[in-house]
Amino acid sequence: xxxxxFTGSLLLAALVAAPAMAQSNTNQGTINNAGSSNEQxxxxxxxxxxxxxxxxxxxxxxxxxxxxxxxxxxxxGTGGDWDVRAVxxxxxxxxxxxxxxxxxxxxNAAGVTGNAALLGNGAEAVARANxxxxxxxxxxxxxxxxxxxxxxxxxxxxxxxxxNIKDGVNALTIPFGAGVGLGYAHFIVDARFTxxxxxxxxxxxxxxxxxxxxxxxxxGLTLGYEL
Length: 227
Prior knowledge:
227 residues, 2 helices, 9 strands, 49% strand, elongated
């Protein structure tokens, strides 16, 4: 009698558990199928991306900038920067940018009077490596970039300058960095960090032929429109 009762209990438990196990397997299969479908969708999306520059966008942005070496930071404060960019290759693995870049920093040096500021105006040309990913109607695009540029630094709004800072100099720059862009319809938003190595920077002579190192960084946002 006990054997029959035990056997009956096992059969009842199996009947109850079977639908739950089937439902669990179905749910797991659905999740696996969804993950596989998303992965295949991303692969198909990347498979259709051209390598050569495709797509043209115009962007306008701004952010914050500062010098990275302590000697320059003692003389000039952290400031703001702004840029206007033409981006070729918004929809491809390889792209390029041409940009006007401007900046302004407060001058803290003795001998410079008035509401003085150090202005920077220049141009940059960089190459880009993009990874355009599609998430529905949204495009997510991480990118790396690097190139060459030129900046003219000059003192503005100064009543007098008796410091060793020159009134104006040219400098060669090597900008490089990384960012991520978001695109929806024809609109573009990107965030980026840029580091600039600076050469032939004779703005603040020190001893002999040396001068303060003007390497700098910037971070900001740009808004744009894809043509």
